[in-house]
Amino acid sequence: MGVLEDKARARLFYRYLSKVYDRVNPFVWNESMRAEALEMLALDEDDRVLDVGCGTGFGTEGLLEYTENVYALDQSRGQLEKAWAKLGKHDPVRFTFGDAERLPFASDSFDAVWSSGSIEYWPNPVAALREFRRVTRPGGSVLVVGPNYPRSTVFQKLADAIMLFYDEGEADRMFREAGFEGVEHRTMGPSYKPDVAITTLARVPEE
């Protein structure tokens, strides 16, 4: 487990990163990548969507282009404060301080769940994905964007020491173990590193 796959360390890390996050983020997660991921999710305008690990609201802003029924959650108050400054604390997004592994929402509450740039900090990704499945209605969709596993042995060792990086095979395992079906993956990234991220779309089985 990497040093940032610890909730207390991750919160401390983001307390400081939140100050510069919006300037750094475009180098690894930009508007073009967000638009491609949103097309995969294929939201309808009346869909109720949850953004888990919303950070400063970059993904949340993209979701609002498709639906007004957006909820967002993060475990970092520093990140949430940045999101509130952009979007308002209560409207149009319903923000919640909380944990991806213990979502404070009723079962079948959402038509879709989105999470970008958060899975790498979860101590137990499968537990969080099970929570995603629980709060998403049967037949609904879940999309997760995370860091693709490096090809270089040197960078693999560095990645493993910091936080979760994973490939398509590991993503398949996590999503299927969490009870999803119809799992598909797409790598994406900025022009200088077109495979820096792995985006996984999965469906909650119909009952």
TL;DR of this structure?
It is built from 8 helices and 7 strands. It is of the alpha/beta class and 207 residues long.
List the topology elements.
Elements: H1 7-17, H2 21-24, H3 31-41, E1 48-52, H4 58-64, E2 69-74, H5 77-87, E3 94-97, E4 110-116, H6 125-135, E5 136-147, H7 153-162, H8 168-177, E6 181-188, E7 197-203
Parallel strand pairs: 1-2, 1-4, 2-3, 4-5
Antiparallel strand pairs: 5-7, 6-7
Can you characterise this structure?
With 207 residues, the protein is α/β, with parallel strands linked by helices. Strands 3-2-1-4-5-7-6 form a seven-stranded mixed β-sheet, sandwiched between helices. Strand 1, helix 4 and strand 2 form a beta-alpha-beta unit. 41% of the residues are buried.
Low-confidence stretches: none
Following the backbone from N to C, one meets helices and strands in this order, namely HHHEHEHEEHEHHEE
Number of helices: 8
Helical residue percent band: 25-40%
Rough shape? globular
Read across the widest sheet, the strand sequence of neighbours is 3-2-1-4-5-7-6
SS class:
alpha/beta
Biggest sheet features: 7 strands, mixed
- Care to count the β-strands? 7
CA-to-CA gap between the ends? Answer: 35 Å
Q: Average pLDDT value?
A: 87
Strand coverage percent: 15-25%
> What Rg, in angstroms, do the CA atoms define?
16 Å
Keywords for this entry:
alpha/beta; 207 residues; globular; seven-stranded mixed sheet
